[in-house]
Amino acid sequence: MRESAELIVYVREDCHLCSEMIFDLNKLQAKLSFYLELIHVDSNPNLVEKYGEFVPVLMGKNEEICHFHLDPKALDAYLVKIR
User: Which tens digit of pLDDT belongs to each residue from 61-73?
Assistant: First the structure.
Protein backbone atom coordinates (compact mmCIF):
# COMPACT_ATOMS: atom_id res chain seq x y z
CA MET A 1 0.00 0.00 0.00
CA ARG A 2 1.39 3.40 -0.94
CA GLU A 3 1.99 6.07 1.65
CA SER A 4 -0.46 8.95 1.87
CA ALA A 5 0.81 12.31 0.69
CA GLU A 6 0.37 15.29 2.97
CA LEU A 7 -1.26 18.30 1.36
CA ILE A 8 -2.11 21.70 2.81
CA VAL A 9 -4.77 24.12 1.65
CA TYR A 10 -4.45 27.72 2.78
CA VAL A 11 -7.98 29.11 3.10
CA ARG A 12 -9.93 32.09 4.41
CA GLU A 13 -13.36 32.34 5.99
CA ASP A 14 -16.31 32.95 3.65
CA CYS A 15 -14.24 32.15 0.56
CA HIS A 16 -16.32 30.40 -2.09
CA LEU A 17 -13.22 29.38 -4.07
CA CYS A 18 -11.82 27.80 -0.91
CA SER A 19 -15.04 25.85 -0.37
CA GLU A 20 -14.99 24.65 -3.98
CA MET A 21 -11.38 23.46 -3.79
CA ILE A 22 -11.97 21.65 -0.49
CA PHE A 23 -15.09 19.98 -1.93
CA ASP A 24 -13.17 18.85 -5.04
CA LEU A 25 -10.24 17.56 -2.97
CA ASN A 26 -12.56 15.64 -0.64
CA LYS A 27 -14.05 13.86 -3.67
CA LEU A 28 -10.55 12.78 -4.78
CA GLN A 29 -9.10 11.96 -1.37
CA ALA A 30 -9.99 8.27 -1.12
CA LYS A 31 -8.99 7.53 -4.72
CA LEU A 32 -5.67 9.37 -4.61
CA SER A 33 -4.79 8.62 -0.97
CA PHE A 34 -3.67 11.88 0.60
CA TYR A 35 -4.00 13.61 3.96
CA LEU A 36 -5.47 17.09 3.77
CA GLU A 37 -4.77 19.84 6.29
CA LEU A 38 -6.61 23.15 6.18
CA ILE A 39 -4.82 26.24 7.44
CA HIS A 40 -6.93 29.34 7.97
CA VAL A 41 -4.74 32.30 7.05
CA ASP A 42 -6.95 34.77 8.93
CA SER A 43 -5.65 33.37 12.23
CA ASN A 44 -2.04 34.36 11.46
CA PRO A 45 -0.98 37.90 10.44
CA ASN A 46 2.08 36.54 8.60
CA LEU A 47 -0.09 34.25 6.50
CA VAL A 48 -2.56 37.08 5.80
CA GLU A 49 0.36 39.17 4.56
CA LYS A 50 1.75 36.30 2.46
CA TYR A 51 -1.50 35.03 0.93
CA GLY A 52 -4.03 37.85 1.37
CA GLU A 53 -6.69 37.32 -1.29
CA PHE A 54 -4.47 34.78 -3.09
CA VAL A 55 -6.44 31.83 -1.72
CA PRO A 56 -7.04 28.98 -1.79
CA VAL A 57 -3.52 27.69 -2.27
CA LEU A 58 -2.86 23.95 -2.46
CA MET A 59 0.63 23.08 -1.26
CA GLY A 60 2.73 19.96 -1.14
CA LYS A 61 6.10 19.84 0.60
CA ASN A 62 7.12 23.51 0.28
CA GLU A 63 5.76 23.52 -3.25
CA GLU A 64 2.67 25.20 -4.61
CA ILE A 65 0.54 22.78 -6.61
CA CYS A 66 -2.19 25.22 -7.65
CA HIS A 67 -4.24 28.16 -6.44
CA PHE A 68 -7.76 29.58 -6.83
CA HIS A 69 -9.09 26.40 -8.51
CA LEU A 70 -8.08 22.76 -8.19
CA ASP A 71 -5.90 21.71 -11.11
CA PRO A 72 -6.28 17.90 -11.24
CA LYS A 73 -3.39 17.51 -13.71
CA ALA A 74 -1.04 19.50 -11.46
CA LEU A 75 -2.16 17.44 -8.44
CA ASP A 76 -1.60 14.16 -10.32
CA ALA A 77 1.84 15.32 -11.47
CA TYR A 78 2.80 16.30 -7.93
CA LEU A 79 1.62 12.96 -6.48
CA VAL A 80 3.49 10.98 -9.15
CA LYS A 81 6.65 13.00 -8.45
CA ILE A 82 6.66 12.38 -4.68
CA ARG A 83 5.76 8.68 -4.74
Answer: 989 999 999 999 9
